[in-house]
Amino acid sequence: MPLLALLACNPPSGPEPPLPDEQPAQTLTPPETTQDDSRDFAPIALPQTLPAAVFTRTAPVSLVDERGAPLVVLTGHGAKLELRHALADRALVACVVCTEPVEGWVQTNLIMPEGHQPSDEESADPQLALALYAIQLRGAMEQGEPVAGLEADAAQRQLLLGAMDHGFAIEGRKAMAPASGLVYASLGVSVLVRMGLEGWYLREVELPPSPSRAAGH
Question: What's the whole-model pTM score?
Answer without folding.
Answer: 0.79
